[in-house]
Amino acid sequence: MPNVYLIGAGPGDPGLLTLKAKRVLETCDVLVYDYLANKAFLDYCRPGAEIIYVGKKGGDHTLPQGDINKLLVAKAREGKMVARLKGGDPYVFGRGAEEAEELLADGLTFEVIPGVTSAVAAPAYAGIPITHRKFASSVSFITGHEDPTKDESAHNWPALAQAASTLVFFMGVKNLADISRRLIEGGRDPKTPAALVRWGTTCRHRSMVSTLEDIPAEAKRQGFKAPSLLVVGEVVSLHDTLNWYEKRPLLGKGVVVTRSREQASDLVRLLTDLGACAWEFPTIEVAPLADPAPVREALGRLNCFDWLVFTSVNGVKCFFAEMDAMALDARALGGLKVAAIGPATAQALAERGIRADFVPEKYVAESVVEGLLALQIGGKRVLIPRAAQAREVLPEELARAGAQVEVLPVYETKLAQQDPDEVLAAIEEGEIHFLTFTSSSTVDNFFQVVPAARVAALRDKLTIACIGPVTAATLKKHGFEPDVQPENYTIPALAQSLVRAAAAV
């Protein structure tokens, strides 16, 4: 096995990481990563892996390149499997070759895992193909990070200017005026289309189109800064026609997700697909019970019940985890009818081979009660696997209707301790636009961590969304009215309600 893997993380969209890179991240002992590598990749690392941030942000290196080389050597000499994660591709202006040479000089081995370079991906997301039969049959990748005051440039500016190639400059914003001047002096038409793409492929993606002569002034007017790519060539004329990514309805919108980390993935994925920047701020931790004995005792007498009623995906997962521990499977539920509070819970059951006999039209406990009463549940024996602390509406109303109800705690929820300063600062700076709540417990726990007064002070900058009326009622107890609430109390409906709210602004 190689001592060190030099991995290209791609341009920022987590979906552009290669499968091979993901596999190495999942098994490495040490991860050394750059500023431009998406932090979402850190979640792939196994528990206990050593994670080291080395910076490499323009003009602000946490570790100089020489020290990074020494760090890789030192960690590899400890006998550890080292993953070196770099933005884009390691060999495209990434100094990966220098790191490889240093490893070889110390008798160590390495492997390169190429990444999608931003020179291809960022223009593509902005609707700019870097080659096109009508406009350009070649492309040049150029560093724009040259000192404009030095006597000689490393570039042959007349050759670049007079070629029919598309020109893609990395790190060129700082020297944009100099690049423009040199190309025009070299013979490039001042009216040549030119574009800047900032934070390409990420939720912060922006692009702008101008001409070679005007783009320095236009970039300054629009506030374009690093990290941005400069694209020069006739292919830029296709920007408005082929620009697909910037049509995503939540692009650039920051959304705080307060669900537990275990449950957040569905909402985060939906938001990300819509272009949003999802800020995970879990307020709940789902934990197994310290003593599983009561659950296992109940599983041993499932034949005593007529109905199983699941009120959450977590309830399903924890209930079946204990079944697995007892070597039981779906056959143990033979003869029971099963209800699910909503489609997500029903899907969790379906994944375990159980088709729910009843799912209410509205996904709250009150609708479950109404539907089960219509199914003549009075007099039936009902088991409700749920959280240790939960609303009592469902068991109380079923018992009032004559059902014999047993509540079975199968997990507990705890307050997730979070530092709110980063999120609050992002709200103040206009990076976060939506605050979402998907249950009453997310509301209560959020306001245990974040003082209501601080949220009130930022209220005009925030749109608050609740998944349904029960969650909204809890929010009101803390002094806030929801701005957004979907008609259907589901995660997809919540995401779509944010789309409508964003369009209405």
From TrEMBL:
<keyword id="KW-0808">Transferase</keyword>
<keyword id="KW-0627">Porphyrin biosynthesis</keyword>
<feature type="domain" description="Tetrapyrrole methylase">
    <location>
        <begin position="4"/>
        <end position="215"/>
    </location>
</feature>
<dbReference type="Pfam" id="PF00590">
    <property type="entry name" value="TP_methylase"/>
</dbReference>
<feature type="domain" description="Tetrapyrrole biosynthesis uroporphyrinogen III synthase">
    <location>
        <begin position="266"/>
        <end position="495"/>
    </location>
</feature>
<dbReference type="InterPro" id="IPR014777">
    <property type="entry name" value="4pyrrole_Mease_sub1"/>
</dbReference>
<dbReference type="GO" id="GO:0032259">
    <property type="term" value="P:methylation"/>
</dbReference>
<dbReference type="InterPro" id="IPR036108">
    <property type="entry name" value="4pyrrol_syn_uPrphyn_synt_sf"/>
</dbReference>
<dbReference type="GO" id="GO:0004851">
    <property type="term" value="F:uroporphyrin-III C-methyltransferase activity"/>
</dbReference>
<dbReference type="InterPro" id="IPR000878">
    <property type="entry name" value="4pyrrol_Mease"/>
</dbReference>
<comment type="similarity">
    <text>Belongs to the precorrin methyltransferase family.</text>
</comment>
<dbReference type="GO" id="GO:0004852">
    <property type="term" value="F:uroporphyrinogen-III synthase activity"/>
</dbReference>
<keyword id="KW-0949">S-adenosyl-L-methionine</keyword>
<comment type="pathway">
    <text>Porphyrin-containing compound metabolism; siroheme biosynthesis; precorrin-2 from uroporphyrinogen III: step 1/1.</text>
</comment>
<dbReference type="InterPro" id="IPR014776">
    <property type="entry name" value="4pyrrole_Mease_sub2"/>
</dbReference>
<dbReference type="InterPro" id="IPR006366">
    <property type="entry name" value="CobA/CysG_C"/>
</dbReference>
<dbReference type="GO" id="GO:0009236">
    <property type="term" value="P:cobalamin biosynthetic process"/>
</dbReference>
<dbReference type="InterPro" id="IPR035996">
    <property type="entry name" value="4pyrrol_Methylase_sf"/>
</dbReference>
<dbReference type="GO" id="GO:0019354">
    <property type="term" value="P:siroheme biosynthetic process"/>
</dbReference>
<keyword id="KW-0489">Methyltransferase</keyword>
<dbReference type="InterPro" id="IPR050161">
    <property type="entry name" value="Siro_Cobalamin_biosynth"/>
</dbReference>
<dbReference type="Pfam" id="PF02602">
    <property type="entry name" value="HEM4"/>
</dbReference>
<comment type="pathway">
    <text>Cofactor biosynthesis; adenosylcobalamin biosynthesis; precorrin-2 from uroporphyrinogen III: step 1/1.</text>
</comment>
<dbReference type="InterPro" id="IPR003754">
    <property type="entry name" value="4pyrrol_synth_uPrphyn_synth"/>
</dbReference>
<dbReference type="InterPro" id="IPR003043">
    <property type="entry name" value="Uropor_MeTrfase_CS"/>
</dbReference>
<protein>
    <recommendedName>
        <fullName>uroporphyrinogen-III C-methyltransferase</fullName>
        <ecNumber>2.1.1.107</ecNumber>
    </recommendedName>
</protein>
<keyword id="KW-0169">Cobalamin biosynthesis</keyword>
